[in-house]
Design brief:
187 residues, alpha+beta, OB fold (Dihydrolipoamide Acetyltransferase, E2P), 3 domains, five-stranded antiparallel β-sheet, extended
């Protein structure tokens, strides 16, 4: 009986250490400047969202092709009864997949840009700044003097320490406009 408690305690300790390590890793990544923001972009936008989208698209195509094969080859028990479920399942998977994977080419292009050193840096005056709280975390909206707007959904060093009308140096990825760094210009 004691062995069971020891095993449970070890499992709980391992889970706690793993969870704490993950939290500390994200805190450290957030404190890093360019590379930290790029890692978050790579993990969440590029890998998690786009890969899930591609898997859903693949699943939708597989369901459609397999269903059509079963109906045409007359291997389905009730071919007419399969049509609506196949169309519904395929449609749902394909729509969700395309919604998630719609930015795949831009995201992959920006990964290549970052890895090759093609990151844009410029000095801008931020004329309007909004920090909107959402259930998923803060959402930052920046409007620059030239009318361009940037939206950022990740916390980052200096992302919310913005004063309207001040000059800032920003670094961002060219296609997705993913902010990597924002620093107040020192005059």
């Amino acid at each position: 009986m004691e062995d069971v408690h020891i095993i449970r305690n070890k499992k709980n300790a391992i889970k706690t250490v793993l969870f704490t390590t993950i939290i500390l890793a994200f805190v450290i990544i957030s404190m890093l400047e360019d590379i930290g923001q790029f890692i978050k972009f790579l993990l969440f936008d590029v890998i998690a969202v786009n890969v899930v989208g591609i898997v859903l698209i693949s699943g939708g195509l597989f369901a459609l092709i397999f269903g059509v094969y079963m109906i045409i080859s007359r291997k389905a028990v009730n071919p007419r009864g399969m049509i609506i479920p196949i169309v519904l399942l395929s449609s749902i998977l394909l729509i969700l997949g395309f919604l998630l994977a719609k930015n795949t080419t831009d995201d992959l292009s920006d990964v290549g840009s970052y890895l090759s050193g093609n990151v844009r840096e410029e000095n801008v005056v931020i004329t309007e700044f909004q920090n909107v709280s959402t259930p998923d975390g803060p959402l930052y909206y920046y409007t620059f003097e030239d009318g361009r707007t940037f939206e950022e959904g990740y916390r980052g060093k200096g992302f919310n320490d913005v004063i309207e009308g001040e000059s800032y140096t920003i670094r961002y990825l060219p296609k997705t406009k993913k902010l990597l760094r924002i620093e107040k210009e020192i005059n």
